[in-house]
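Hi R.,

Here's the chain you asked about this morning:
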Amino acid sequence: MKRLLEFLGFLALVQGTGGLVYEITGRLRWGITLRWGVLDGYGIYASIALIVLALALFAAAESRRPG
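And the predicted structure, written out as tokens:
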């Protein structure tokens, strides 16, 4: 379970960082925040939320017992 939380945290971190880089610079046009039409106009907020989610997943993975 710890590995799964770490993997999901990594994915959320990569997607959030990629979306934030795109919103700030206009480069690196990929990621989940660009694919969902619902998030039009809210790309920065969605990217920040993904980064916060990644940090929460990493914290949850750290609190799990090994094994």
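The chain has a mean pLDDT of 88.

Let me know if you need anything else.
M.
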